[in-house]
Amino acid sequence: MKAAIFEKPGLENLEIKQDVKEPKLTDHDVLIKVKLCGVNPIDHMVISGAVPVRPLPTYRAVK
Predict the structure, then answer these.
(1) pLDDT in tens, 25-59
(2) 9, 18, 23, 31: which could form a disulfide with 49 (CB 3.0–4.6 Å)?
(3) pTM above 0.70, yes or no
(4) Cα distances (angstroms) measured from residue 41 to each of 47, 60, 62
(5) Which residues have a Cβ under 8 Å from the Cβ of 4 and sit 6 or more positions away?
(6) Using an 8 Å Cβ cutoff, are 12 and 5 in contact?
(7) Which of 15, 17, 16, 14 shows the shortest CA–CA distance to 46?
(8) How many CB atoms lie within 10 A of CB 44?
């Protein structure tokens, strides 16, 4: 199973791993087979480091 792993900003930190263990599923989980995926422009700017990233969780209080 392949996985794209992104741990911190920077294109050099996006790693495509060929052999990742298949996750153990519980009664409330679903495993979906993905044939094709893409990266939207905002995600690409974050991955490339062009946009600063706030630490998670990111939220704003609503007044």
Answers:
(1) 999 999 888 888 877 888 778 777 788 776 666 66
(2) 9
(3) no
(4) 10, 23, 27
(5) 14, 15, 16, 17
(6) no
(7) 14
(8) 14
